[in-house]
Amino acid sequence: MSASTSTTPTKIILPDLVSHCDFKKRVNRHRKQITTETKQWLFKGGNLNGKKRDAFHGLKAGLLTAMCYPNAGCPQLRVCNDFLTYLFHLDNLSDDMDNYGTRSTADEVLNSLYHPHTYRSSARVGKMTRDYYKRLIITASPGAQQRFIETFDFFFQSVTQQASDRKDGLIPDLESYIALRRDTSGCKPCWALIEYANNLDIPDEVMEHPIIQSLGEAANDLVTWSNDIFSYNVEQSKGDTHNMIPVVMNEEGLDLQAAVDFVGNMCKQSIDRFVDDRANLPSWGPKIDHDVALYVDGLADWIVGSLHWSFESERYFGKTGREVKTTRVVNLLPRRV
User: Of 23, 24, 195, 314, whose CB neighbour count within 10 A is largest?
Assistant: First the structure.
């Protein structure tokens, strides 16, 4: 559909990202157990009711966790699943602090992470944070703990910025959006969980190496930008513009389908970037190389796992995910008034 036609598009065709990604899809054998345990943990004390409970079941976070951390032992997988589920529900869990916006939630969470044994607060989001983090620090390396907290801090800073942009009706330029989205995605703390889930203790100078950083960024970009494509329909129906597709339409002057294709190509390039970087990893000696290979495999698990999960979850396509995965056709929802 060209930009000059006045008719509003009724559907979009998704890029074929699943075929472009030939990484092996793996699923952790503890998936069912941790799904049940996390559900009990999340619902304790009436945290979520009615529609929010249904949304939890439709989310299938346990499947995402099991595909992204396929080799984790059961206790580690449970912590990862608690964290991912909590991340998806962070808005709901901090409802009682909505009046203060994201900053008060950030204070609760970060105080709970920096002082898990001494910080006391009655807010449920703080209690849940302390609960999973106390379990994480039993086996996580000091470096993984530090990276988890630092990147989660960046997440809250960027979410606060996003809330401010949304309030002002701002559509950022593409470069600013990409920089912000790498933190609002919440991927970076999940990369620290790869270290934790696989019992890795990789030196800081290795984790800070440009190629390791570039691999993490390529994986983040693929997970995040593909998520913008998959979530576009639900978001446009709510009038939410914090998505790469409207950003590209605005900056490049493209119509909707052309913008979807543009972002799709960027996703494919991020997979190609990852493959190139992986082939060019330097060597740090047998022990570190072994751990680095496991970490990089973990990033690849996230790329392939998130792509397949997006069509299994009901978050983006309701009950039609598998059909959309085959046809790649998404019928656009009407704009909510």
Answer: 195
pLDDT tens across 278-318, in order? 999 999 999 999 999 999 999 999 999 999 999 999 999 99
Residues 6 or more apart whose Cβ sits within 8 Å of residue 164? none
Give me the domains of the chain, ranges plus CATH numbers.
Answer: 27-139 (no CATH), 170-328+333-337 (1.10.600.10)
Start-to-end CA span in the chain (Å): 25
Task: Tell me phi and psi for residue 229, to 5 degrees.
Answer: -65, -50
pLDDT digits (tens, 9 = 90+) for 67-86: 999 999 999 999 999 999 99
Question: Which tokens go with 61?
Answer: 């976070």
Helix, strand, or coil here: 329?
Answer: strand
CB 41 within 8 A of CB 82: yes
Residue 225 and residue 264: Cα distance in Å, rounded? 8
For 52, 85, 214, the CA distances from 91, given in Å and listed in that order, are 11, 11, 30
Buried b / exposed e along 311-321 (16+ C-beta atoms within 10 A): bebebbbeeeb
Structure tokens at 3: 């930009």
One DSSP character per residue, 120-138 reads ----HHHHHHHHHHHHHTT
